[in-house]
């Protein structure tokens, strides 16, 4: 399984820290955008060939494509304010020396500089980039291919799709357009243009490696995967087809090292065009919200659940108290299989379906509970920001503790105990977490994926909450009677939830 930390969405190229005052601009929202005469529009000419068929000589050179589109691609330099830690840290001491106010402290604001990419989509100065490039910027500057450097203002941004629009003053900019008539295929040639590592004016070429990649379950993009080199600073730049049409906005890379390994991800043109058009009109992007945390289960986890390995749906991992879904009767352990009558294959698809609803709209959620299908009618709320969602999910700061041999009741080779006050203290379990704490695990226990460890808390087994060893035994006995050889455990390790498939042996 790919680790989320290996997906890099950071746009900063050559991040530097500097003390000094920052210049903060005033964010203004334009009215309805009227497109001027398209005298500067770069118009590709595919000729009589197919939509993505290479012209004669391709891919011998991409020089003509680069010459054509380069004037529309820009470097985006941002200044952000950062918190300066006060005081002095001395190695070996668990605290900081903090000077009294006015005595040795540095009260000057601290700023950071970063760089990303973008491209003009209108003659009058509207530029597309990534939200993570400009989200925290106090100052934005745009450097054009001809060397000019212009101040820019933020027009609007959308955290969900990682898109943003900024604007510079003027009415004579070369610009490019999103592809609207054809979809790229796996194997089609592409060229990425942008500002890797702050170098500017850089082109890389490759092919479409895959489509509909789901690398961010909390987002709303089915990414295009490309093997054209994408590095830090390419964020927000365009991916072109061989005719100079924008098929995607470069947004992320997969990298165990921090550099390009040939796997980059671009937001599809269809999504980018729709969202940026709304941002240009001054609209804020609001999405539906029901207050559920959903999880996509692996085939072996569905089997442990008593479902086919290719089962389509999403497991309800948590329900926001007093949220829209909670008020409609949703419970942890429900399996979401359809939204507004349309089947959902996984948690990402369900999230996007819910997100497409308007606030206050009624959303029909089809769920399976205790083997029976039923429908919940949920009045949609407005999806909070990602920071607000994360804050609501953060519980304590506990972490797994050390093993206590012989502690608790042994079930299938796993020693478990109810979560008493002393157990919470011993294993640093947050008050928000309830279940059975693991005190020891025998070497003979067979797990299909991740191994249980002492200090982890088993919160549910299959669809049932467990608070006592008897609860866990009941689920295991039920699985055996149904002829299943595994049980799906939902566990909590500090603030991190997860799932573990435990293979069942003989009767203990």
Highlighted features:
seven-stranded antiparallel beta sheet; 14% helix; Thrombin, subunit H; Pdz3 Domain; six-stranded antiparallel β-barrel; alpha+beta
Explained architecture:
A hairpin with a 6-residue loop joins strand 4 and strand 5 (96-97). The protein folds into 3 domains: 4-23 and 38-44 and 63-83 and 105-280, Thrombin, subunit H (Beta Barrel), CATH 2.40.10; 288-393, Pdz3 Domain (Roll); 409-503, PDZ domain (Pdz3 Domain). Helices cover 14% and strands 34% of the residues. Strands 25, 26, 27, 28, 29, 30 and 31 form a 7-stranded antiparallel β-sheet that branches. The chain has a 6-stranded antiparallel beta barrel with strand order 11-12-13-16-15-14. Residues 1-5, 10-34, 88-99, 101-105 and 394-406 have low confidence and may be disordered. With 508 residues, it is an alpha+beta fold. The radius of gyration is 26 Å and the shape is elongated. The chain contains 9 helices and 31 strands.
């Amino acid at each position: 399984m790919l680790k989320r930390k290996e997906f890099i969405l950071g746009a900063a190229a050559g991040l530097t820290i500097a003390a000094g005052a920052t210049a903060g601009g005033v964010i203004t929202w334009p009215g309805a955008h009227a497109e001027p005469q398209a005298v500067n529009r770069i118009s590709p000419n595919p000729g009589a060939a197919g939509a993505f068929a290479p012209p004669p000589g391709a891919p011998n050179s991409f020089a003509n494509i680069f010459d054509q589109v380069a004037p529309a691609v820009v470097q985006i330099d941002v200044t952000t304010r950062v918190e300066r830690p006060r005081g002095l840290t001395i190695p070996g001491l668990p605290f900081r020396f903090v000077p009294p106010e006015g005595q040795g402290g540095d009260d000057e604001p601290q700023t950071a500089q970063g760089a990303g990419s973008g491209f003009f989509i209108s003659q009058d100065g509207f530029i597309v980039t990534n939200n993570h490039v400009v989200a925290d910027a106090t100052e934005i500057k745009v450097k054009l291919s001809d060397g000019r450097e212009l101040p820019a203002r933020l027009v609007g941004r959308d955290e969900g799709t990682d898109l943003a629009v900024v604007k510079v003053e003027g009415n004579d900019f070369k610009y490019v357009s999103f592809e609207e008539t054809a979809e790229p295929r796996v194997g089609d040639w592409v060229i990425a243009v942008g500002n890797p590592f702050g170098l500017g004016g850089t082109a890389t070429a490759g092919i479409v490696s895959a489509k509909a990649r789901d690398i961010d379950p909390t987002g709303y993009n089915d990414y295009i995967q490309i093997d054209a080199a994408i590095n830090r600073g390419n964020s927000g730049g365009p991916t072109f087809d061989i005719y100079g049409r924008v098929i995607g906005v470069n947004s992320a890379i997969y990298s165990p090292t921090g550099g390009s390994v040939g796997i980059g991800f671009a937001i599809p043109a269809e999504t980018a065009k729709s969202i940026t058009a709304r941002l240009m009109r001054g609209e804020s992007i609001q999405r539906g919200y029901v207050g559920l945390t959903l999880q996509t289960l692996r085939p072996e986890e569905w089997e442990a659940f008593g479902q086919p390995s290719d089962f389509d749906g999403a497991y309800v991992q948590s329900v926001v108290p007093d949220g829209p879904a909670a008020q409609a009767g949703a419970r942890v352990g429900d399996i979401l299989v359809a939204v507004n009558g349309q089947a959902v294959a996984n948690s990402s698809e369900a999230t996007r379906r819910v997100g497409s609803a308007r606030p206050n709209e009624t959303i029909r959620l089809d769920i399976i509970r205790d083997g029976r299908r039923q429908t919940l009618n949920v009045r949609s709320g407005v999806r909070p920001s990602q920071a607000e969602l994360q804050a609501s999910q953060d519980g304590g700061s506990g972490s797994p503790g050390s093993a206590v041999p012989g502690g608790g009741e042994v079930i299938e080779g796993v020693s478990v105990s109810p979560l008493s006050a002393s157990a919470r203290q011993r294993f640093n379990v947050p008050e928000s977490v309830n279940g059975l704490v693991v005190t020891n695990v025998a070497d003979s226990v067979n797990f299909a994926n991740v191994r249980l460890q002492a200090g982890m808390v088993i919160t549910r087994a299959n669809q049932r909450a467990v608070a006592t060893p008897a609860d866990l035994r009941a689920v295991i006995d039920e699985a055996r009677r149904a002829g299943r050889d595994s049980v799906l455990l939902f566990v909590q390790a500090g603030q991190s939830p997860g799932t573990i498939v435990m293979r069942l042996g003989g009767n203990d």
